[in-house]
UniProtKB/TrEMBL annotation:
Residues 42-55 have a biased composition (Basic residues). The lineage of its organism: Eukaryota, Metazoa, Chordata, Craniata, Vertebrata. It catalyses: L-lysyl-[histone] + acetyl-CoA = N(6)-acetyl-L-lysyl-[histone] + CoA + H(+); L-lysyl-[protein] + acetyl-CoA = N(6)-acetyl-L-lysyl-[protein] + CoA + H(+). It holds the Pfam family Bromodomain. This is Histone acetyltransferase. Residues 1-55, 368-403 are annotated as: Disordered. It comes from Salvelinus namaycush (Lake trout).
């Protein structure tokens, strides 16, 4: 027999497994306080289970409904002489009398426990365990002040209470059951280790595995901040989604560590990328800060691992956590060093009993100690030494994969070749060495700022004033700091005007924080209905300029707006700011229709209106790194190609003999370099003639009966995951717009876009699909028309 309780998505209804409740609000790791609390409850259960059977019946009678004749509605026996609170240590225990009447219904204790007469000792001990869990949760409910957490505790309390009454097993029904996301965090970290470090020697690879174990252990013992605290720290994040995960974490991973009558799951095994992304930034900062604070107390054998290797490991993992194109989060993740795919297997499993570090709260989180009482389930210790010890679980079974299934990569260069080249670019030992302290002369403007952010030196927070929520002292202090920075750096702007906009609830500010103080920011106002955002102020304090902070600020702002589906910036720039905005992709060519912004934005005398259109496919904060990597890959590919051409041909002597020119293909060795003769198609040099020809061809293609799948851009709702597979989408509507704007200055540009439509279709759809067949038929029609127009050789 089992008892279940319904759980609504997003509500703090109850789960069925988890980890230990210890300060979910602060954001940190569980310390010795949690371990001691769990041990204390286990000791109480052991003591109670060793009691005589009458004592056990008395304990269970308190939670058992009366079975006397006449339909008594009493739901628990109450002693006529309850023990004092707190119980006295010198008091002799009373003998249990089954004939003692209930203070509530006057029926005897025996009438309340008749259903337990033939129950085995094992079942009775199980019920006693639930009883102590109920009593513990009762204490949690009354001492917890956070509303969301209190509601979860209360729901669990009712569920376990009902299980005792009906002698059932606690099972909680929810819209989803674990695991909640695939691949799990544990699997993603396994994939990360294989993806980045499979080429390392075994000794160095083992170091990476140890780092991964330590990281997974930290997540399993990490205490999530409450939804209300997260709203104060990151008001723009997905509050509803975080609340769902917080509820699941409490139910399945946090409470059951103390209340072992509920089954328990590891956080890293039932949650995936979404939860990891919501905690990674704060978690990384606190882990590194605590490591710096405790460096003198670390064991010598762990000091290098934690202080040198761990920060670099976290930085590399962070790129994969927040990258939209990272392959480690694909369920079809496969890697192979020689071009073939090998089944992925688990290389790491988080130690469930390790003693983790406790780390301080994040800068914007509310300190629970300053907010009244906290439930016993949320108390933590102040610090613990780091440890990689603990019992290891058995590695999980290999995940089966279809050998014919391959990770889809769009591009002209085979992925095997890219991996091989990347292995030659990345120094295998660089992962284990200290971070570069000197930047090269060719570094991107924001590279220094990016490194400082990864080290936790600087932080970025979107903040704003609110008339509805209780003021947060730290946020108000930051807003005052921003007002001071803007006033100092923009002396021609009235101070009262700056103050009014910075503290206006309709405006937000992306603030740059260094050493706990504001050193810069961008104040903006979003107009979602109009599809743009106005940038009002942008400044970095004078003594922190020329460090790439301004570029990194703008890149963070771009990514923030892409998440909120706003893809246009508008701003009035004065003569001193035009250069900066041009470097950030702004121009005087405004893409937003005038009717959209007229009357919405503030007009400044003597300033220039500039706009910037965002591309949602670009990860702006990592854009310069991606470009740098692409350049390195191309350089290495060229070097490899050159190395393959081993034969050295003698120089050309024909010119000395009076020959004026020769065909390119007659040059010895030219074809071995990969050169191919250009098609003999006619290139129309007259722009109007080219436009007319291409327009005619495009009309023929669009009017064909097989063109219907390609008329407009693919909608996300119709093809889920399309834009994760297809990185460069194209359609006939976009081609028509490009043709109208005279984008196609050569036939090759036009043909490349058309070919992209067919290639994308065959890449995403299976060969037996109708779309695949339409692409093949329409491709033949297109090339027929191209040949008829004389643009390629027949």
């Amino acid at each position: 027999m089992s008892e279940s309780a319904g759980v609504q998505q997003g509500s703090p209804a109850i789960g069925a497994a988890g980890s230990a409740p210890a300060a979910p609000g602060a954001g940190g790791t569980e310390g010795s306080g949690a371990t001691v609390g769990s041990a204390r409850i286990a000791a109480k259960k052991a003591q109670l289970r060793s009691s005589p059977r009458p004592k056990k019946l008395e304990k269970l009678g308190v939670y058992s409904s009366c079975k006397a004749e006449g339909g008594c509605k009493c739901n628990g026996w109450k002693s006529q002489n309850p023990p004092p609170t707190p119980p006295r240590t010198d008091q002799q225990p009373n003998t249990v009398n089954l004939l003692e009447p209930c203070r509530s219904c006057s029926h005897t204790l025996g009438d309340h426990v008749t259903h337990l007469e033939n129950v085995s000792e094992e079942e009775m001990n199980r019920l006693l365990g639930i009883v102590l869990d109920v009593e513990y949760l009762y204490t949690c409910v009354h001492k917890e002040e956070d509303a969301d957490t209190k509601q979860v505790y209360f729901s669990l309390f009712k569920l376990l209470r009902k299980c005792i009454l009906q002698m059932g097993k606690p099972v909680v029904e929810a819209q989803e059951s674990p695991p909640f996301e695939k691949p799990s965090i544990e699997q993603g970290v396994n994939n990360f280790v294989q993806y980045k470090f499979s080429h390392l020697p075994s000794k160095e690879r083992q170091t990476i595995v140890e780092l991964a174990k330590m990281f997974l252990n930290q997540i399993n013992y990490w205490q999530l901040e409450t939804p209300s605290q997260r709203r104060q720290r990151a008001p723009a994040d997905d509050a509803a989604g975080y609340k769902v995960n917080y509820t699941r974490w409490l139910c399945y991973c946090n409470v059951p560590q103390f209340c072992d009558s509920l089954p328990r799951y590891e956080t890293t095994q039932i949650f995936g990328r979404t939860l990891l992304g919501s905690v990674f930034t704060v978690m990384r900062k606190q882990l590194l800060e605590q490591a710096r604070q405790e460096k003198d107390t670390l064991p010598p054998e762990k000091r290098t691992l934690i202080l040198t290797h761990f920060p670099k490991f976290l930085s590399m993992l962070e790129e994969e956590v927040y990258s939209h194109s990272s392959p480690i989060w694909s369920e079809d993740f496969l890697v192979g060093s020689t071009g073939g795919q090998i089944p992925i297997h688990t290389v790491i499993s988080a130690p469930p009993v390790a003693r983790p570090l406790y780390y301080s709260t994040s800068p914007v989180s509310v300190d629970p100690s300053s907010c009244g009482s906290v439930s016993p389930a949320r108390k933590t210790a102040s610090a613990l030494e780091p440890s990689l010890g603990g019992q290891k679980r058995k590695p999980s079974e290999p995940i089966p994969h279809d050998e014919t299934k391959k990770l889809r990569i769009v591009g002209d260069i085979p992925m095997e070749l890219i991996n091989e080249v990347m292995a030659t670019i990345t120094d295998p030992t660089s992962m284990l060495g200290p971070e570069t302290s000197l930047l090269s002369a060719h570094s991107a403007r924001d590279e220094a700022a990016r490194l400082e952010e990864r080290r936790g030196v600087i932080e970025f927070h979107v903040i704003g004033n609110s008339l509805n929520q209780k003021p947060n002292k730290r946020i108000l202090m930051w807003l005052v700091g921003l007002q001071n920075v803007f006033s100092h750096q923009l002396p021609r702007m009235p101070k009262e005007y700056i103050t009014r906009l910075v503290f206006d609830p309709k405006h937000k500010t992306l603030s740059l924080i260094k050493d706990g103080r504001v050193i810069g920011g961008i104040c903006f106002r979003m107009f979602p209905s109009q599809g743009f955002t106005e940038i009002v102020f942008c400044a970095v304090t004078s003594n922190e300029q020329v460090k790439g902070y301004g570029t990194h600020l703008m890149n963070h702002l771009k990514e923030y707006h892409i998440k909120h589906d706003i893809l246009n910036f508008l701003t009035y720039a004065d003569e001193y700011a035009i250069g900066y905005f041009k470097k950030q992709g702004f121009s005087k060519d405004i893409k937003v229709p005038k009717a959209k912004y007229l009357g919405y934005i503030k007009d400044y005398e003597g300033a220039t209106l500039m706009g910037c259109e965002l591309n949602p496919s670009i990860p702006y904060t990592e854009f310069s790194v991606i470009i740098k990597k692409q350049k390195e890959i191309i350089k290495k590919l060229i070097e490899r190609k050159q190395a393959q051409i081993r034969k050295v041909y003698p120089g050309l002597s024909c010119f000395k003999e009076g020959v004026r020119q020769i065909p390119i293909e007659s040059i010895p060795g030219i074809r071995e370099t990969g050169w191919k003769p250009v098609g003999k198609g006619k290139e129309l040099k007259d722009p109007d003639q080219l436009y007319s020809t291409l327009k005619t061809i495009l009309q023929h293609v669009k009017s064909h009966q097989n063109a219907w799948p390609f008329m407009e851009p693919v909608k996300k709702t119709e093809a889920p995951g399309y834009y994760q597979v297809i990185r460069f989408p194209m359609d006939l509507k976009t081609m028509s717009e490009r043709l109208k704007s005279r984008y196609y200055t050569t036939r090759k540009l036009f043909m490349a876009d058309m070919q992209r439509i067919f290639t994308n279709c065959r890449e995403y759809n299976p060969p037996e699909s109708q779309y695949y067949k339409c692409a093949n038929l329409l491709e033949k029609v297109f090339y027929t028309k191209i040949k008829e127009a004389g643009l390629i050789e027949k």
